[in-house]
Structure prediction request, 170 residues.
Amino acid sequence: MADWIFQSVARLYDLPGALKEARRDDKLIAFRVRPQYEPVIGDTVYLCFGGPAKRKPGLYARATVLTSPDTIKSEDWERRYEVAPFPVERGVWLKIQRYLDPPVARDEIYGSPALKKNLFVTRHEGTNFKLTPAEARAVETLIAGPRPLTPQALSLNSAFPVAGPRHRLT
Prediction:
């Protein structure tokens, strides 16, 4: 099994909005996979929302790959979150396992010594990034650690139940 970061950017897709709906209705998420990457059924994927700081970029969820890469088309409900309709392309279906509220801030990921050599940190662009086992452990440590619970996160609690007692108010 492998671990990945899959990134979506605000100029193309409203990942936080799609995750809220997927959470509420227990829906699967379609995610594009570039040809050079081969996630397999059972791999872990950390879903990251990228873009400008005002859009709260960071890790929003942990998911599991349910299908092998194949030609997929977004479901009708997901199209509402696409800035422009995605073409039918190669991708996988993901089942969300854990929603992160608040998300792990992108700056925390970029600041992790264990992740400093990963292309996700060094290139700041792209969609699919494979993690080494040590990098995946570092991501899990960030997820388990305390994160500020912002007023925005408090307003989202109806869609995302707080994951545990490790949050602090700022």
User: Anything to note?
Assistant: Confidence is low (pLDDT under 50) at residues 152-170. The longest strand covers residues 89-105. The longest helix spans residues 133-144.
